[in-house]
Amino acid sequence: MSTQLLDQKEHDAKKRLAALIQEGQKISSGLQVEKLSLPAVKGYELVVKVTDRKLNLVGIIAIHNTELGPALGGIRIQPYATFGDALEDALRLAKGMTYKSAVAEVGFGGGKSVIIADPFKQKTPEMLLAFGAAVEKLAGSYICAEDMGCTTEDVKVVRKATKYVVGLPHEKSSGDPGPFTAWGTFRGIQSAIKKLYGTDSLEGRTVAVQGLGNVGSHLAEYLFWAGATLILSDRDAEKLERLTAKYGAKAVSTDEILKVPCDVLSPCAFGGVINDQTIPQLKCKAIAGCANNQLLKDSHANVLKDRGILYAPDFVINAGGLLNVAAELDDEGYNPRSPRYKVHHIYDTLLAIYEIAEKNRESTHSAALALAEYRIKYGIGKRVVPPTFHHSA
Ligand code: NAD
């Protein structure tokens, strides 16, 4: 689709939204929110299917655990092939958020939602408004935010139907989570270097970064200034060329990046990269990146351990964005200094996890899971003050 057509589409969508709101017809009357009681959702507190046939809306909101606070997690908009695929993704991501929040001690639980739609072709303001109305029905047990396929502009639309939203583009909001996630990942890479070599200096160490997006591009910059030698890869050739020139890095193809000899491999593109095919090809001493669900299966953590590759668990190292967005709901309002401090200390949390794993002769992944489960069981980090939503409508 040409840029002109896209601009026209966006313009039409904005006009329709303005008209909808003005007319007070905020939410379609065809919205249905139905609790799912399938065997697959056992162990989850609440999973609902959200539909509105008139609007072609099919979505899922999954709340895994709210022991430590209301569930917080993004809205992912993706053209899943089947409802089962969407459900599987929502469940996996919601559970991951429970563990990420527990280790980060943000006083939130785990939840996630998905909308089955192509974000470039099928997403409409009406659909987002109806989805927001479904979030509102859950009365704050699930707080939504942006995620893949769902922009800050989209959550602004969702906000018209519910206050249970974070990550809005306004002055009281936390803004782009990328730099915070990148800083946490940088500190995680330092923790891995410290564990491997006894010093956390990155001077002369080689780090291979897969994916130079919102997080990876900031990470490359932090690593450059810390003196690391960089090997970079991205499927976007123009971006790759620009950033390799900027940081005096070596560029490699998307096929090569997982196989290059390096101190740390940093997966920052997508999940599932650590699997039966890739593990035998790895030539890194540690893996420390921001991508969610890097291990295709939990058991791959043991294979890494047996190969002597140190793994910084993804849901610990990539919590910087969550810490930042959670600060938006502090009763005194958002101040970037408080999440900065917490993100910085992802380093210490990871060092502690490496030690526990070593003592218990288990993988770092299972040590991190055990830490999260312990905190949930004993209410460590449980929210005492309800979240405050500072934004106005
Ligand atoms: P992004 O979409 O901005 O960036 C992903 C980058 O990876 C893009 O530049 C893309 O071109 C590149 N890419 C895609 N396929 C590739 C391949 N085969 N080889 C090399 N590069 C490839 O995403 P992001 O926001 O930077 O997030 C990256 C990962 O981190 C995702 O898995 C995301 O879920 C996770 N994460 C992000 C945040 C955040 O704050 N943005 C927080 C936690 C976790």
What does this structure look like?
The protein is α/β, with parallel strands linked by helices. The chain has two domains: 2-96 and 108-159, 3-Layer(aba) Sandwich (Rossmann fold); 178-372, Rossmann fold (3-Layer(aba) Sandwich), CATH 3.40.50. 40% of the residues lie in helices and 16% in strands. It has 13 helices and twelve strands. The strands form two sheets. The chain has a six-stranded mixed sheet with strand order 1-2-3-5-4-6, sandwiched between helices. It has a six-stranded parallel sheet with strand order 9-8-7-10-11-12, with helices on both faces. Helix 2 packs across helix 13 (364-377), helix 5 packs across helix 10 and helix 10 (320-326) packs antiparallel against helix 11 (337-344). The model is unreliable at 20-25 (pLDDT under 50). Bound molecules: nicotinamide-adenine-dinucleotide. Nicotinamide-adenine-dinucleotide is lined by residues 177-178, 181, 210-216, 233-236, 254, 268-271, 290-292, 318, 321.
